[in-house]
Structure formats: structure tokens, C-alpha cells
Design goal:
about 500 residues, alpha/beta, FAD/NAD(P)-binding domain, 3 domains, 5-stranded parallel beta sheet, 15 helices, about 20% strand, binds flavin-adenine dinucleotide
């Protein structure tokens, strides 16, 4: 039995731990924070609210099904999943809101009503998105991306042209749709992957299949239910977890990691899996000569955005607000440029409002609402209380246009979260929220590698490696790295 240390307890670390324990190893997870879950932690307030701190969109449910099935369980053994109907709302302006239905026929009718002829084109677009999704899931995402040879099988090569790796997502969308509302609706999942549609390969229209065809789901009790379930699966397989345990150093000898250091204690291991932010692990935990990538490499990378977040308790019910509402009532391109091209606080931000209490009574006291505001911003911005508050008021005023009332007098809980918190809590590079953007030059074999080239038993996993940002990819990343570790330990 080998002894394996996992650094970090987000989705990737917990998944890797569970698979490695199931493979028969002694696995220890070390988490710097008091609570497990990484970016998907939650917190409960004294006045009865429970806030998920990070993810809120449950897409690609079969990835979760697959994880639990690998251990002989079903999702329903741990949490109840409900499909949201409508899936989400998009606000284009005052009294101009589009509810995105969860059923296909209603979606086609909606498209047709906005742009005549677009229903047929949507069918074509989604057929292609489904093809990409299937090839992606079957042939691409469960591979470690160490070499191009992993992708050289007949079906993948034959499908490569249809995968449209080299065409731009924004051009692809405009071949099918011309109405700005439809373009914004189709481009939004890609923005979630953290890049401008102009810089994203058309391959990623596979996300439209996930978003518009596979449904938008919600785990009752909140996203933290998934973390609790994964911790439980890991514990049943024998995983030991250690919170308040920031790893300060990975000690190496003769090209191998021998131990980790936590304050003054040194613990020996046969292999180390780092699921904490890649840059932090390389710049703070190992000697500089043994890094895969230097500081210049990270400076050149396109990071997914950071975010300004507000967690709000509202002491009354709010009308006119869905579980998910996207405020696309300002110029998408302008905001994207202010995130990626010319990083600055946005002049006219787009933002997102999550109100899980519309679906789930357990996350707020009776008669109250739980509201989460998220405004994507560039990484590395100077972040101050005054700036946060200015944007808070911008978002609340736009929310007021939607709900017809100013909710600020009804706030009975308020907490903000931004760049400096991401850095302090997760050792996040420049305060990134979701890792690296999925641009062409940062896809598959071009992502940071899962194996350290100079320390043969040090592995990396998580949203900065393959397959990329988001909960399902991080979960897959944990599975993929566990295969690499097992391979190393058995050869
Ligand atoms: C605000 C927000 C909203 C999001 N919304 C969605 C969404 O709706 N849907 C979706 O699919 N995805 C969403 N995401 C993305 C998704 O949450 C992440 O991609 C995923 O949770 C990342 O998991 P991970 O394991 O790679 O990293 P993390 O969750 O960051 O885990 C890494 C862990 O390592 C720990 N750590 C760091 N340094 C050390 C150290 N030295 N020693 C020990 N531990 C250390 C950190 O504390 C952390 O717990 C969102 C993310 C954020 C931040």
C-alpha cells in the first residue's frame, strides 16, 4: 500500500483522493482552510442563511452520476437533484427579459419568435454541439493531455474537422444567428469558461449542448451537498482528511518528492498530488529549479476572470426574480474587453444574480430570500471596500429595475468577496476565480501538465490543468490524475 498526500480539498482533490483510496492506497487530504470544498465552500449566518460561496450552475449531470457510480452509489443516495424550469432568465433591458425554457420545443418556438428561421438553424447548431459534446466526453476530456498521441485514434481524427478546433466560436455562432439577443444567449456559456468568444475555439459550442439540452439542475440544500457527498464517498473508501493544514513545502530528494512540511511537522509520502492553484504550488512549495513553468509563463497565460461577489440576506420575498438571472443589459463585448484585453474595473458591467431560495426553502429563513450577486472582473485588479460598494449599488439599482423595488432597505445580511479574498483563501494567482481560460492555446495538450517533469512523483490536478475550469471538469481532472498516479506507483 502506497501513501499519497493530496494538497487541497476542492472537487479535484476530493475526486483524486476517493479514486486513489479505492485503488487501495493510504490517502491523506491536507486543506489549508477550516472547511473542505475549496471554491465550493459554504457558510451559515447566525440569522439563518446558508450561502454557497462559489458554484451555482449544475450542468452535465452525467459527470456527477459517473463519479458516484464508480463507487457503487447513485447521486440520489446523497442529494436530491431538481431540474430548473425555466432554466434561467436573461435580462436584456428594462421590461425585456427572456426566460430560457427547459424543453426543446419551447426553445425552438422562442428562437423563432425572436428571429424568423432561427428554429431550424438552432436544431442544426445543437446537433453539431451534441456531436462535439459526445466526442469531447468520450475521446478528449478523460485524457491527461500529456501528448498529442493520446488523440490520434481514428474516430477523433475523423471527427476533428467537425470539432472545429481552429475556427472561432464567435464566427461559428454568427453563421447561425444574427439577432443580438440570441447571440448573447448562445455565447454566455463560453464566457463562463473564461474567455472572449472571439478567442474561444468553436469546439466549445459543446457547452451549448450542456446548457440548452442537458438541463440546468440544482442539488437541494445547495452545492455544498455535493462536497459533503464526495467527502463521505472518500471516507468510506478510507480517505483521511486534515483541515487547517496548509502545506508549506514539498520536500524533494534525487528527483522525487519524499515528504510534505506543515509548519514544523514533516510527513513522508510515496506520491504527492497538488490540487491547489498550480502557480502557488510551483512558486511557493518546490525549489525554483524544479518548476515546470516559470513566472513569465504564468504572466503570458490568459486567466479566467476573478469576481466581485455579494452574499445577501433579504428579509422578505422578492417577486420577479428567478433562481438564475443573467443581466446582459449592457454591452457584452465592452465588458469582455475590460476583463481580458485592457484589464480594468468595468465601465458598464454585466452581472449574474442567483436566488436559490426561489427553489430551496432550506437556504434562507421562512419568508426571506438568499441572494448571490456575481460580477466577473479582470484578475489582479486593485480591490477596495469603496470600489466594491460602488459596484454593489450599480448592481442593486439594475436589480431594482427588474424586481420593481429597492431591496437595500431589506438587507439583513451582507458580505462581499473579491480579488484579495481569493488570494488569501485559496492562494489563487492574481485572485482568479475559475483558473485558466479555455482559449485555443490553452486547450488539451496546451494546458499546464499534470506531471512535474523533474519530480517524478509530483502530480497536479484541478481547474488549471486538464480538462479545464468548472465543477464537472475539476471532478474529471481528479479522476484523470488518479490514473497517472496509479500508473506511476505500479511501474
Ligand atoms: C464564484 C465562483 C462561481 C463558480 N460558478 C461555477 C458554476 O456555477 N458551475 C461550475 O461548474 N463551476 C463554477 N465555478 C468553478 C468551480 O467552482 C471550480 O472550477 C472548481 O470548484 C475548482 O475546483 P479545484 O479542485 O480545481 O480547486 P479549488 O476548489 O480551488 O481547490 C483547491 C484547494 O486547495 C487549497 N489550498 C491552496 N493552497 C494550499 C496549501 N498550500 N495547502 C493546503 N491546501 C491548499 C485551497 O484552499 C482549496 O481548498 C465557480 C467558481 C467560483 C469561484
Amino acid at each position: 500500500m502506497s501513501k499519497i498526500a493530496i494538497i487541497g480539498s476542492g472537487f479535484s482533490g476530493l475526486a483524486a483522493a476517493a479514486y486513489l483510496a479505492k485503488a487501495g492506497h493510504e490517502v491523506h487530504v491536507f486543506e489549508k482552510n477550516e472547511m473542505l470544498g475549496g471554491r465550493a465552500r459554504n457558510f451559515t449566518t447566525e440569522n439563518g442563511y446558508t450561502f454557497d460561496m462559489g458554484p451555482s450552475w449544475y450542468w452535465m449531470p452525467e459527470v456527477f452520476d459517473k463519479f458516484f457510480a464508480d463507487f457503487g452509489y447513485k447521486v440520489a443516495d446523497f442529494y436530491k437533484l431538481v431540474e430548473l424550469s425555466p432554466a434561467f432568465d436573461v435580462v436584456y433591458g428594462p421590461k425585456d427579459t427572456l426566460s430560457v425554457p427547459d424543453n426543446q420545443e419551447a426553445l425552438y418556438t422562442l428562437f423563432e419568435s425572436i428571429e424568423p428561421g432561427s428554429a431550424a438553424r438552432l436544431k442544426q447548431f445543437l446537433l453539431e454541439a451534441e456531436f462535439k459534446y459526445k466526442v469531447g466526453m468520450d475521446k478528449l476530456v478523460y485524457k491527461p493531455g500529456l501528448s498529442i498521441t493520446e488523440f490520434l485514434d481514428k474516430d477523433t481524427i475523423l471527427g476533428a474537422l467537425r470539432l472545429q478546433v481552429f475556427s472561432r466560436f464567435s464566427d461559428h455562432v454568427r453563421k447561425y444567428f444574427s439577432h443580438p439577443k440570441l447571440i448573447a444567449l448562445i455565447e454566455f456559456p463560453v464566457l463562463f469558461l473564461g474567455a472572449m468568444p472571439q478567442d474561444t475555439p468553436a469546439l466549445y459550442s459543446l457547452m451549448n449542448h450542456a446548457c440548452l439540452q442537458l438541463g440546468t439542475w440544482y442539488p437541494m440544500g445547495g452545492f455544498y451537498k455535493i462536497i459533503e457527498a464526495m467527502v463521505e464517498v472518500g471516507k468510506r473508501a478510507g480517505v483521511k482528511v486534515h483541515t487547517n493544514s496548509a502545506v508549506d513545502e514539498i520536500i524533494t530528494k534525487d528527483g522525487k518528492a519524499t515528504s510534505i512540511r506543515i509548519k514544523d511537522s514533516i510527513l513522508d509520502f510515496d506520491a504527492v498530488v497538488a490540487s491547489a492553484d498550480y502557480n502557488h504550488v510551483e512558486s511557493k512549495l518546490i525549489p525554483s529549479a524544479q518548476r515546470n513553468y516559470d513566472a513569465r509563463y504564468w504572466e503570458k497565460k490568459t486567466f479566467a476572470p476573478s469576481s466581485l461577489i455579494y452574499y445577501l440576506g433579504i428579509n422578505k420575498r422578492v417577486k420577479g426574480l428567478r433562481h438564475h438571472t443573467l443581466f446582459f443589459d449592457e454591452n457584452l463585448l465592452q465588458h469582455s474587453k475590460e476583463i481580458y484585453k485592457n484589464p480594468q474595473w468595468p465601465s458598464k458591467p454585466l452581472f449574474y444574480v442567483c436566488c436559490p431560495s426561489q427553489t430551496d426553502d432550506s437556504v434562507a429563513p421562512a419568508g426571506h430570500e438568499n441572494i448571490f450577486l456575481l460580477m466577473p472582473i479582470a484578475t489582479g485588479l486593485t480591490d477596495s471596500e469603496e470600489l466594491r460598494e460602488n459596484y454593489f449599488n450599480v448592481m442593486m439599482e439594475r436589480l431594482q429595475m427588474q424586481t420593481g423595488e429597492d431591496l437595500r432597505p431589506f438587507i439583513d445580511y451582507k458580505k462581499s468577496y473579491c480579488v484579495t479574498d481569493f488570494i488569501a483563501d485559496y492562494n489563487s494567482f492574481k485572485g482568479n476565480a475559475y483558473g485558466l481560460a479555455n482559449t485555443l492555446m490553452q486547450t488539451a495538450i496546451l494546458k499546464p501538465k499534470m506531471i512535474n517533469k523533474k519530480i517524478k512523483n509530483l502530480f497536479y490536478t484541478g481547474q488549471l490543468t486538464v480538462p479545464g475550469p468548472g465543477v464537472p471538469p475539476s471532478l474529471i481532472s481528479g479522476k484523470v490524475v488518479s490514473g497517472l498516479v496509479t500508473n506511476y506507483l505500479t511501474h
